[in-house]
Amino acid sequence: MRQIVVGALKVAFAALALAGPSSPGAAQDLREFVVGYLEGARPEEVEWGRHPADMGHMPDFVPHRPVAGAERGVNDAQHLGRLMKIRYVLEHRHGAGAGELTAALKNLAEQRRAKIFLIDAPGPVVAEVAKASAGMDLLLFNVAAEDGALRNEWCQPHLYHTIPSHAMLMDSLVQYLMVRKWPRVLVLTGPDKRDEAVAKAFERAAKRFGAKIADVRSFLLTQDPRAREVNRVEQLTSLEDYDVVFVADAHGEFGYQIPYRTVLPRPVIGVTGLVPRAWHWSYLRHGAPQVNSRFEKVYDRRMSDADWAAWIAIKVVSEAILRTKSTEVADIAEYLRDQSIRLDGFKGGPHSFRPWNNQMRQKVLLVTRNWVVAVAPLPAFLHAVNALDTLGYDERDSKCRF
Amino acid sequence: MPDDEKSGRMPKIARLALGFAALTVAGIAFAGTLQAKGTGRLFISNERDHTVTVLEAKTLEVVKTIPVGRRPRDMQWNDDKSKLYVAASDVDMIQVIDIEKLEVVNEIFAGDDPELFEISPDGTTIVASNEDEDMASFIDIDSEKIFRQVPTGVEPEGVSYTADGSQVWVTAEVSQVVHVMDTATGDVYADILVGNRPRRAVFSPNGKEYWLANEISANVHVIDTSTFEIVGEITFEGLKGAPGEVSPVGITMTGDGRTVFVTLGHANHLAVIDRETRKVRKYLLVGSRAWNTQLTRDNKILYVVNSGSDDITLIDVEKTKVIKTVPVGRYPHTLRIDD
Q1: Rounded to a whole number, what is the distance in Å from the CA of A244 to chain B's nearest CA?
Q2: Mean pLDDT of B301-317
Q3: Ramachandran region of residue B278, left (φ > 0), alpha (ψ -120 to 50) or beta?
Q4: Is A181 in CB contact (< 8 Å) with chain B?
Q5: For residue A312, what is the nearest residue in chain B, using CA coordinates?
Q6: For B251-319, what is the HEC assignment?
Q7: Among B228, B183, B235, which residue's Cα sits nearest to residue B210?
Q8: Which of B173, B190, B217 minimises the CB distance to A19?
Q9: Nearest chain A Cα distance for residue B145, angstroms
């Protein structure tokens, strides 16, 4: 593998300097290169927000859409657009569902010759748009949906994922539990479909790495005194013993109430406490503070996981264009397929794409509300090819067939 | 040397005169005498302590811990080493430490978040990379004013003046380029596409090569300074059993241009490279997240700054062996020697 790295880099760096005086940022003679940004309707449960008390008084608690990350990506790419004589333009389109988003995609592809699209929508919508755009001369980057099915049954050869899957996130969390020797887990899960998906991913991770599920219990967000079995933390966490409580709760409102209210004094993980994330503002290594600081200066808020995923998608595309000296979809796709590329995600280690499902290999941060406790994969977990493939669907587990 | 330590610095004129005499009378054989003119003290910037640690050269004991502006990073000497300039990144300043008083006596606004900088060979100008602003700031030292800002790629870092002062080469980490700038006009001659996350670089003593450390690509590029083309690449496959990713950052060349030292960051090693053959001669285990390096003027000792273990490692250059490791402040960044 290492030999390949050397060879490929030599080829990539064969033709390099573009000499002659130029003034950075000059816009003259630059050809437009459109990046489409497709934004689906905000899922109802996210609209509801994190906590009612915060909704009214803390606007920062309202989840922001990651188009800001895409804007930063275009801004960063712009600096070197001049090397390729192109000017990146981000075209932001909204759509209620897959139909409207597909129409927006087709319109941008036909009218503006857009070849690169980012999509910020729920998993099933991403899947539909990807299916409807199959065979077109374009690449679609999923920057927000963590659904496992998108990396498996719903995969498409032109669909890439820069956001980690539920499986990658849960594998990271369980690796940490195993290193800490906290293997016995009480799983609490909500009624949302996504809670079920996250809980399943957690159980899969537990099986992979040898954690034990002490029990799986469902909760309901209600004050109904007749439902105390499922709405009281005391009842839900009453069990002989366990090392940690794992909570799957897409809404967050119930999950946030659990720490310090468990029957046994045990850490809470998953939705609060220790949470696996693609990105976090508190990370201090690998140049992350600079990326966060540049983002925060412009948007006056923290950079989210999806912001990072949108930013890195555009960074990767602009890098592919620079390295291949081409804006053709086939050349960009070939670059992304190259297993020797070393993409810089600012969280350590080179990233690349898994050829079997187009998922970006990456490190996962395990964070509290203000600190990165550990970075996965944990050093104890080894892999024959790439340690990053201990997270998520490895080639042999993949149900994706391009 | 011990006398120097007690009496402080020899007056500037005497030092210059002695240096001149040594050079003219005895030439290079007296280089040792020449380097003994300074106190030999080590100055280390500590990024998270907001201090500069001063160590005695021989005993490696702390002489003083100088409070400076927030997040001190790169440091450079003025030509007679009476002043040490320190980039205090979080307060957007380059501060000036008086070497006799061992305190900050002045500060110069250096643009947003100055990270690395160099002083022009004629001593009149500072060029600083403004990491958060994507600029290279040209500062006139006399008037203490920024007289030019040149836009760079994203997150500019390494700044290297050519020996004749006509060009300054600036790396941009995120954009993966090196900009070659005309120092007279600020025009960018060339944007050289390099490896992923280019960090620091050094010119060979003959000025013909620019050696660049690419952190994420995990390699070093050798660039021909006349054609701006990459003519060589050094990789580090030979290093086995490193605790983390090979991430080259710091780079130093011996005065005879024969040996290049490259720190491998998270791999906790230093690579010793033969410049002519471009082959790694040896790997030395140093501290955690080894970044910057500094050679003594006589090229006998190399100091490696380990920002992940809050210490510095001393290397015997001739024997290519680690001498010892000494603790300093939190997140040490740069080391300079008063020699």
Answers
A1: 29
A2: 96
A3: left
A4: no
A5: B174
A6: EEECCCCCEEEEECECCCEEEEEECCCCEEEEEEECCCCEEEEEECCCCCEEEEEECCCCEEEEEECCC
A7: B228
A8: B190
A9: 23
The rounded distance, in Å, linking the Cα atoms of A338 and A12 is 11
Q: What are the structure tokens assigned to A95, written together?
A: 């759509």
Interface probe for B, chosen from A6, A294, A312, A386 (most Cβ of B below 10 Å), is A294
- Tokens 């009624």 -> residue: A191
* Yes or no, beta carbons of A9 and B218 under 8 Å apart: no
Nearest CA in chain A to B192: A17
- Rounded to 10°, the helix A123-132/A98-111 angle is 40
Is the CB of residue B129 less than 8 Å from the CB of residue B113? no
Contacts of B230 in chain A (CB under 8 A): 13, 16
Q: Decide if A13 and B245 are in contact by the 8 Å CB cutoff.
A: no
Q: Which residue has the tokens 């140049």?
A: A287
Closest by Cα among A181, A175, A135, A178 to A159: A135
Specify the higher pLDDT residue, B10 or B279: B279
Q: Collapsing DSSP states into helix, strand and coil, what is residue B118?
A: strand
The model's pLDDT over A99-115, given as tens digits with 9 standing for 90+, comes to 999 999 999 999 999 99
Sheet of A350-353, strands arranged across: A343-344, A350-353, A360-361
Residue of A nearest to B133 (CA): A294
**What is this structure's pTM?**
0.84
Nearest chain A CA: its distance from B123 CA (Å): 26
B177-219 tens-digit pLDDT: 999 999 999 999 899 999 999 999 999 999 999 999 999 999 9
Are B166 and B122 contacting, i.e. CB atoms less than 8 angstroms apart? no
Which two tokens mark A357? Answer: 């499902």
Q: Measure the CA–CA gap between B38 and B15, rounded to whole angstroms.
A: 8
pLDDT of residue A3: 34
Hey, what's the torsion of the CAs at A192, A198, A204, A205, to 10 degrees?
Answer: -160
In which band, very low, low, confident or very high, does the pLDDT at B273 lie, cut at 50, 70 and 90?
Answer: very high
Query: Using CA atoms, how far apart are residues B216 and A342, in angstroms rounded to an integer?
Result: 7
pLDDT band at B5 (very low <50, low <70, confident <90, very high): very low
Which residues have C-beta within 8 Å of that of residue A232, sequence separation ≥ 6? none
Low-confidence ranges of chain A (pLDDT < 50): 1-26, 45-50, 54-61
Contact flag B233-A6 (C-beta cutoff 8 Å) = yes
Structure tokens at B185: 């006009």
Instruction: Please state the ipTM of this predicted complex.
Output: 0.76
Q: Strand runs (DSSP E) across A114-183, as ranges?
A: 116-120, 139-142, 159-161
Whether the link from the prior residue into A259 is cis, omega within 30° of 0, is no
Higher pLDDT, B166 or B6: B166
Cα B12 to chain centroid, rounded: 24
Residue B286 reports pLDDT greater than 80: yes
Alpha carbons A167 and A145: distance in angstroms, whole number: 12
Instruction: Select from B216, B233, B243 the Cβ nearest to the Cβ of A10.
Output: B233
Tokens coding A282: 């508190």
A24: closest chain B residue by CA: B151
B132 with A294: Cβ contact below 8 A = yes
